[in-house]
Design brief:
heterodimer; A: alpha/beta; 11-stranded mixed beta sheet; 15 helices; about 40% helix; about 15% strand; B: Histone, subunit A; 3 helices; 2 strands; flat
Chain lengths: ~475, ~100
Amino acid sequence: MIGATIHELTTAYAAGERSPVAVAEAYLARIDALDPRVGAYLTLMRDEALAAARLSEARYRAGRPVGPLDGAPVALKDVFCTRGVRTTCGSRILETFVPPYDATLVDRLRAAGAVILGKTNMDEFAMGSSTEHSAFHVTRNPWDLTRVPGGSSGGSAAAVAGGLAAGAFGTDTGGSVRQPAAFCGVVGLKPTYGRVSRYGLVAFASSLDHVAPFALDIVDTALLLGAVAGHDPLDATSVAAPVPDYVAALAGGVQGLRIGVPDEYFGAGLDPEIERAVRVAIDVLRELGATIERVSLPSTEHGVATYYVVAPAEASSNLARYDGVKYGLRVPGKDLIDMASRTRAAGFGAEVKRRIMLGTYALSAGYHDAYYGQAQKVRTLVRREFEAAFARVDLLAAPTTPSVAFAHGAKSDPLAMYMNDVYTIPASMTGLPAVSVPCGFNAAGLPIGLQLIGRALDEPTLLRAAHAYEQATPWRQRRPVLS
Amino acid sequence: MISREDVEHVARLARLALSEAESERMREQLSGILAYIDTLRALDTAGVEPTSHAVPLVNVMRDDETRPCLSQDVALANAPDRSDDFFRVPRIIED
C-alpha cells in the first residue's frame, strides 16, 4: 500500500482490507530503509505514530472512523510545534526546543485521526528554495538523488514523492510548497492567506506565511485542506469564511471556465522544456472545455525584488525572539546584548543571517520608506493587476518554476537562488490560492509543475480545474523508483 | 553599495556578532542583492496605498476573558537557565 493515495488507503481501511497499524509499520520500515539516502526526515515519531495507528484501527473495527483522514500516514515540516516532540525549524538555535503545545494544524490533524510519522527537513526558518540551508543535512530528490527537492519544504515534498508519507504539510511563504511540489512531481497547494490557522507555526514572514499541504493527487489535497481549514480564535489572521466541502466541489470539470495565461510567466529565463509542457497542459484544459485567453501582469518582473524586501524585513522582526533567554540555544556573554549577539551568531546559518541583515537594513532609519514602504506599494500594484485579470478570467495557468530540480550546490549565489521563486511569489504576495500539479517530465525524466492560481477563497474552482486536468493526464501514475 | 561601517551598524542593530570574514562576505552579498532590489526605487508609486497584508482584516477583537494557560514549570521547561520561577540572564543593572 506504499504509494497509495490517502483516499485509497482509508477506503481500504473501511472495507477491512488494510490495517492502519500495518500501513504505519510499512511506512516506518520503508523510512528506516530508504530515508538514510533521501534525508526527508529530521525526527521520526515512531511510538506516537504507532499509538495513533492503533487508536485508528480500533475506530475502524468499531465501525466509527472519525473521517476521511483516519489512519492516514502523514509528515509535518519541522516548523509546526508538536507538543513533546522537538521542533527545530532546521536551525541549530532550536536544536533542542521541545514545544509545550501543539500547533492548531497538528491539533486538527490529530482530531481527524491522521497518523503523524515525523517531522521533515527544511531550509532553516523556511528561508531557501533547495533545503540545502538546513543546519542538519540535505534532502535528496527521489527522482534523482544528486538533485535538490526544492525548498523550503523539501523534506515534506521528498517524503510524499518517495513513498515515505502518504501526504504532508509544509509552509509556503514565497513558493516553499509549490516549488518543491513541482520539483518532486507531487501536488502542492497554497491555500488563500488566512484559510488555515498559523497558531503554533514558527513565524518567518507574517504577511506571507501560509500553511499548505502536499499530496499524491487532488482528491487527497482537498481532503487535507478540508480537515485543517477554518477560523481559529488563536490566530487573529485566520479568516472566518465557512469551509466548503472541497471534495464534493471537484466534480463538474472545466467546461465554461475562463482561464487566463499571463504573458509575463513565459518570458526569458523559462526552461523551454517547461514552457512546452505547460503549453500542452493548457491545451488539455482547452480540450476539456475551458476558454483560454491571454492576460498581462506587468509587475511580475518586480515580484522577486518586492518579496526580498518584505519577507526579510518581517523575518528580521520575527527572529528577534531568538535571544538565548526563553528557549533554544544560549551562548554566554558579558552582558545581555553580548549574549544575544553571540547566541545568534552561533545559532543561525548564513542564509538566515543574510536575510536578517537585509531586513534590518531595509527597516533601519533613513531606509524604511525607500525599501519597505516602496515594496508595500509595489505589492499593491501587483494586487491590482491580479484583480483586473480576475475580472475577466476565473483562473490563471502558468509554470510553477522556471527550471526543473537543480543539482546540489548549483545555486551558491543567493540572488540566483532567489530568482527561482519568480513565478510563485506573486500569489504569495496577493494571498491568492495557487496549486502546483504535475504536468509532465523533461527529457532527463525530471518532473514539471503546472501552476493554477485562483480568486481569494475560491479553492473549489481551483481544485476542480486541477482535478479535471489530473484525471485527463497520466502523470500521477509515474513514481520515482527508490530501492 | 554598502560599506563595512553600514554592515557593522546593521549587525549591531540585529544583534549578530559577525566575524571579520562574515562581515566582508555580507558586504559583498548585500551589495549585490540591494543593487537588484534598487530597481524598485525607480517605479512610480505616487498615490499608491501600501498593502501590508493579503487580506483586509483590521482590529480583530475578542472578549477579555481568562483562559487556561501554560503552567510556570511548563513555560520555563525550555529555558537555557532559570532561577526558581524566573528566566535567569546576565546582570543588567550595575551596582
